[in-house]
## 1
Amino acid sequence: MNELLFVVNPVAGHGRSLRVFARLRAVLERVPGVRCVVWHTRGPGHARELAERAALEGYGRILAVGGDGTVHEALNGLMALSPAARGRIAFGVVPAGSGNDFARNTGIPRDPAALATLLASGPASPMDVGVVNGHYFANVAGVGFDAEVARQANRLPKFVPGALTYVFAALWTLSRYRNAAVRIVLDGEILERRVMLVAVGNGAGYGGGMRICPGARMDDGTFRVVVAGDLPKPSVLSLLPKVFSGRHVEHPLVEVYDARHVRIEAERPLAVQADGEIVAASPLSLEVVPSAVRVIGLLGRSSDATTRDHAATAWAPRSADEPPTAGTSPAPGPGPVVERPVADPHQDGRVDTGRRVDIA
Ligand SMILES: [Mg+2]
């Protein structure tokens, strides 16, 4: 008997997760040899506890039903296990939250039949996990503007739908945010900048389809680091829509690096988000844990190569003329990624717009 253990967050996606899961379960129960075991979370932090317990009780396929917050908690539960114990588990997600970026980053299909097949018998591939100040994350950790947006988004009333939550929160935050001077150490190389934000991507996106770290792969043992420099507010407004396609990195004040170890210190305490949860304040240290977990999905390519936005349309009724299974069809990339070597950021002819930071 193939047992699937579901950790269901019943309040994810403003309560939509229960409907999403009921539909999926109806499909799964018609699959011979599959048995669904369902545990519901009872509050913040419970998904972490349940995921760890499920692993200790010997379940081999553990699926989080919810959004990125639920995935974040479940992943932290699995990371409490030994590497050997984690290696026996296939972890997956049923996207049912207001932000489903982990599902997007791992190429999870939204079609219930395709998803049921994948969850029941699809292969699991090694996936890297990031760690920031002791908190594990799947998608993106960030400091500065995006963390402040996450803080505001978490405070918005729950009737604001998915991706719009972050747009409202971003506009609200923009009206009062000041860029900050930071010192960034990327695998030992130092950058000093005045920044709007620094995003450290294991996966490419967050916030319901924002590809802040385009081209990030969850299986290459390195972070994609995006440093958004001292952008004036009008530039932020014009760049914000481009984050959904990843084309914001074409702006001359946006730099892209790859690094395995990142340390960031700031002139004032800045909020730090990981998978949209506020986890700490600066200074922050980040590290990749390569091949930390095995994940059910379609890794092995740029994690933002999946088709866009499950969040706004997740599990909406599909008409007959829609293309089949979103997550399995190839999609055009997000446009060119401006990559620069980490070695010496001053040799590319660009002006260092930061100023020196005296870090106590
Ligand atoms: Mg990577």
## 2
Amino acid sequence: MHDKIADKMEFPPETPQPNIYPLRWETKSSKVEEIWDASLREAWNPKDLPWDTFDVSSYSWEEREAIAYWWTLLSVFDASAPPVFAEAFIKTYECHEEDAIRRCFFSVTRDEQNHEQMCGLAITKLLESPSPLEYEPKTELGRRLQKNARWLYYNGGRYWNGYKQAVPKYSLAVLFSSFLMGEIAAATIFKQMSQSCEELVFQEAFRNIGRDEGRHMAICLSLMERDYPKLSAEEKSIITKQIRAGYLFLSAVLFEPPAEFWDLPEDFIATQREAEEIARQAGFGVPSFDAKKDNWRAAMLNLKAVLDKYDTPFPAIPEVDITGQEVTQADLDSADIIPIF
Ligand SMILES: [Fe+2]
Ligand SMILES: [Fe+2]
């Protein structure tokens, strides 16, 4: 029961800070204000894409299941993005972040909801079912892909637990490096896909999603510019571990899933490669193994350039030939995973 005090004093006591809502609308960085405006200007609706030009019956069932599998793989990351960013959005209020930064995180949450919706629209159309995990596969490959999808789903669920523990524990500055990693990765893959897909509806979707991810990247970069000169040595060492964790987690969609994080059956990668080849032949431009490796490496080097600027050690990523500080499995077991897509 709350004891009434309003009749005992003229003004209320101070509210302990920080509380969930800042009554303050200050923005110091004009860059984030511009990004917010761009997010409104560039808003799009997945339902308004040229769906009428997309004739699923022109594809075989094997092709449909192979393409739907790629969207399912993507949605393991994108379907967790809205709640993941909503959590970060709440944190910007708890930390009394600048007004335009709070709005930017709101825009990211909204954008990610669009990306998730796009995954759902593509999958539903291709499989004639809203559920890639529950629909009845039509081909033998489809059956194996559904098994893959179930394992991806299981592993993706493990990430959320780590994330929920990490967000209250770390400063936004630490969180941003992981966010940036996901955004660089995302911007990279969607740009590629928009250029290598033959189906108009996918080209347009990937162009829109890639543009959104570019804004997300810019948000992270402008916040890092503000906060990174003040990082402590301890924060820097957490960031180094988080980048390695992010590499392992995001490799599943950007490259191939490393056994260090991903607990998957032995035939998983072979089945996935088989489906990717079929999707590629059908005009759905999943990059080849070598192209993925080159792109992922380039994205990591981009991130490394940003961290180098702030004297934050980059982890060794021997998988894509990047040398750096060794991060062991034991380091990662004790870390909570924060990367975001
Ligand atoms: Fe996204
Ligand atoms: Fe994003």
